[in-house]
Structures are given as structure tokens and as C-alpha cells.
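Q: C-alpha cells for this one, please.
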Amino acid sequence: MKSETVEPEAAAPRGRGRRKLNRAEKAEATRARLFEAAVQTVGELGYAGASVARITERAKVAQGTFYNYFDSRQDLLDQLLPAISNELLAYVRRRVLAAPDCAVERERARMSAFFDFLQEKPQLYKMINQGRVQSPKGFAIHLNQATVTYMKAVEQERRLGNLRLSDPEQIEVVAHMLLGSREYLSERYCFVEGEIVSPPPHVLDAYVDVAAAVLFKRAGEA
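A: Here is the predicted structure, written as C-alpha cells:
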């Protein structure tokens, strides 16, 4: 489920005005507005403050209309983190594909992409930190998505001979270690006086140096 804003009308050839949306398109546009309004509200007020009244007011939708698209407030809230998590995974994937052909540099790209995404989508920070309690279903989906993706990345490096560990059973443990590092480093260095900021350069450098020493081989290393 993407949270992109949908334009209310589609472009039409010059001289003919703009095409009106059909019923299905209007419904999708309304759902998208509710979804984006929920993302913004959770980002500002947390899960607890994201009431149906606040969400619908922000989306400029009647409260009764809300239940045409979501079974309940919790149903909507449980969809938020998995959706943004998918955006994050796509964002990280693009950065990794653009990184130099080196296991260490790919790991640098994953971590730096996460820090950059947090600044673009700061709501993710609050969703992750509050999600375990306020949206356990959504958090579980997010964690599974992140874990599976990281496991595939680490396993690929192992198959390429770029991982210092050789036991396949350790792959999941490594994935959780890397995810845990990402979470704690962002908690310590990315959240400053209520704002999401880029961490100091030495943070990423230290992370990469440790990853290179313990887990990933550098390019050309036997």
C-alpha cells in the first residue's frame, strides 16, 4: 500500500479541460489521502494521538467515510509501518545498486541510505520506536520484511566469498545484529532535540570499519 498523494484529476489534451476521475479512481484517491494523513498525524502526535477524527480532518474526509476504506483505526495504523518499510527497502536497494562492487561499500550504502531516508520520511522513526506496543501487527510485518531482505543480502555476500563467516546458520543472527545497530545508532545520533538529523560522519565510518573487520571483506581481499 503506497501512501502517495493522488491528483484529483488526470490531465487531458489541451482544449478539453481535465478528465474527471471515475468512481474507482476517486475511491483510491480518498484512501490515499486518509493514508497520508495518518502518516503525518502519527509522525507529529504518535500512534496514540492519531485518532480517526484527526486523520479525517487532515484528509478533509467525513469520519463516516473512513470506515468505507478501513475496518478500524487499528487496521489503518497496522498498515502504515509495512508500507513505509517497503519504501525504505526500495530506497536502500537503489543505493546499493549504485554502490561500488565491494561488500563493505554495499554495507555502507545500506546504512547511509537508512540515515538519509529517515530525514526524508521522519515519521518512520516514531513508527519504529512506538510500533512494538501501539501497532504490534504492523511492527511484526516490518521486522520480517527487514530481516528477510537483510538475510538475502548477507547470504549473497557469503556466496560471493565476501563474508568472513561461513556458517549459513549464522546469517539470520548477522542480519539482526546489523538491524539492531541501525536502530540504536539512529536513536543515539539521528534524533536531536526533536528533529531528525544526519549523524556525524565518524558514526558511519566507525560502523563501516567494524563491519569490515568482523563481517565483510573489502574489495580485493583474499
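A few notes: Confidence is low (pLDDT under 50) at residues 1-12. Residues 187 and 202 are 16 Å apart (CA to CA).
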